[in-house]
Amino acid sequence: MKWTKYFIPTLKEIPSEAEAVSHRLMIRAGLIRKLVSGAYTYLPLGLRALKKVENIIREEMDKKGALELFLPSLQPVELWHESGRYKALGEDLIKFKDRHNRVMVFGPTHEEVITALVRDHIRSYRQLPITLYQIQTKFRDEVRPRFGVIRSREFIMKDAYSFDRDNTGLDESYKKMYEVYEAIFKRCGLKVLAVEADTGIMGGDVSHEFMMLAESGEDLLAHCESCGYAASLDIASVKCQVSSVKVKEKSFKEVDTPGVSTIEKVGALLKVKPEQMVKTLIYVADGMPVAVLIRGDHEASEAKIKKYLKAGTIEMATEDIIKKATECPLGFSGPVGLKDMRIIADNAINGMANFVAGANKKDKHFINVNIDRDFKVKEWTDLRMITDKDKCPKCNKGIKIEHAIEMGHVFKLGLKYSKAMKAEFLDEDGKLEPCVMGCYGIGVNRIIAAAIELSNDKKGIIWPLSIAPFQVIIVPINYEKEDVQTVADEVYNSLQSKGIEVLLDDRNESAGVKFNDAELIGIPFAIVIGQRGLKKGVVEIKERATGKVIEVKRHDLSDEIFTFLKA
RNA sequence: CGGGGAGUAGCGCAGUUUGGCUAGCGCGCUUGCUUCGGGAGCAAGAGGUCAUGGGUUCGAGUCCCAUCUCCCCGACCA
């Protein structure tokens, strides 16, 4: 490809709309342009990188026998009612009415559509197992699109769905995809950690996220550097550390805390540290209020609460519900004297003594509260987010909290969709059984952004060879000069005939402009051809990642390039 | 949805406080000449409903009201 025939609008200045490194570089290098918040145009150069990623994904998926298909984005809303996810998706679901007044949605994901397909066409155990996948645009009306292509409202996802006859089959399919994912990320040059994760709106029991550590990541991981343990913050299990030291119980007392209700303010008023306080959070799980006790300095994990209660939906109680359930306004709830409500407590509460808690009375708190003496807890479990003060649940060493980008997510869905939507098959005995499903997603655009996030410098992008839009860029200095042009064209043609993806910068620009652009767009190898070298009969090969330059005889060039590309 | 910031040429910005002539600068773009191994020089050009709608005024990019859009932080989320 010749630069003057191509379309690479590079930018010298940092675009004001972008904050994250990858976002800035993608705009500056002419990979993407924004249309509206959360929707991006892929320019030719960006699309080349994207296609490379897609092809790597295809190759690895196909290798393991997954079959590619293409499902519609346009979907009837009925399917979403059928699966029960219409509500779960909420405002994220983009809906509209067609001309016949029928409600349609733009697919945010495709479990419904694939299950509807499979239930019509998979009738026998003989047709199982099967894994189907697609690479397609998804639509989600995100609360807050961010970081360019990392969190957008329209994005490309590789989504795969496995159908098995039983859990053993699912385990195998799941393991296969897990391995495929490791291979894909590795080939794309990303260092990715597989972590245990919450299943969220997808449902199911087991799920792993593939995360790449990055400062601009939106997710938080608990990561142990000594044993490699990693889990998303909200489900990382916390080791129960009950202190055995007996503290003398002081006498229980009600105190005035007028208008003061947050942990911080109550603590300041009563001169008590947050870790000597207990907060009582009222949740509504499947319509029933539940009191959750968490130590003042800890954060509740809704994922853990939901899992423990085996609830379908869980949300913080509204002010009205709290008033009704505790007979007291928001901000003064406490475990003492709480009537007719299930109480579950985090392990960290166990062993606390003489702590502060709400009094279930407006403007009142209790001090010197003690468990068993002042109230009873029947259910103890792990309900909070892990912190960097906790120990690794696996090896007991320290835990680090780190930012990460979610690159992929795999789920064992089980029977959630096949039961709701009746995707069933006949087994050997002629018995109707629901398919056991798994689903597997990769954010394709995110791979591009993550690769850039991981690998860049002041000059620009440093592509890994596997997903670089071009492998080689030829930078002729003074392309107008006949001798330079002759050699540049010759090199260009010979590399191209050997199947190397090469970009020839045939612009009439100064050397500096060309070098800077080549480095900005991050092509792994630049071949610099100038009169200075030609006098000696050599051209230069410059490696983007290292900046290393070697001189080679012009006629040895293709061999040299091949050794580089192979290495 | 809550808090903060911003919208002036393709990009980056000044001008708005204190209303006043044909709305500026840098980059980029076009044409010509020169230059040519790390973002060249000179000359001549093209490009603007100053986000939108309304209002105040002799006069509005500038003041007032409303709306829209974009970005950041938070809440939420796969």
Structure at a glance:
The protein is α+β, with helices and mostly antiparallel strands. The protein has 15 helices and 31 strands.
Question: What does it look like?
Answer:
This protein has 567 residues and is α+β, with helices and mostly antiparallel strands. It has 3 domains: 52-72 and 108-236 and 401-452, BirA Bifunctional Protein, domain 2 (2-Layer Sandwich), CATH 3.30.930; 253-381, YbaK protein (Alpha-Beta Complex), CATH 3.90.960.10; 470-566, Anticodon-binding domain (Rossmann fold), CATH 3.40.50. It is built from 15 helices and 31 strands. The strands form 8 sheets. Strands 3, 7, 8, 9, 10, 11, 12, 21 and 24 form a 9-stranded mixed sheet that branches. Strand 1 (32-36) and strand 2 form a beta hairpin. Helix 1 (21-28) crosses helix 11, helix 2 (44-63) packs antiparallel against helix 6 (167-187) and helix 2 (44-63) packs across helix 11 (444-454). The longest helix has 21 residues, at 167-187. It is globular and about 95 Å long. It binds one RNA strand of 78 nucleotides through residues 9, 11-19, 34, 36-37, 90, 92, 108-109, 140, 142-144, 146, 151, 157, 197-202, 209, 218, 406, 409, 411, 441, 443, 475, 477-478, 480-481, 508-517, 528, 530-533.
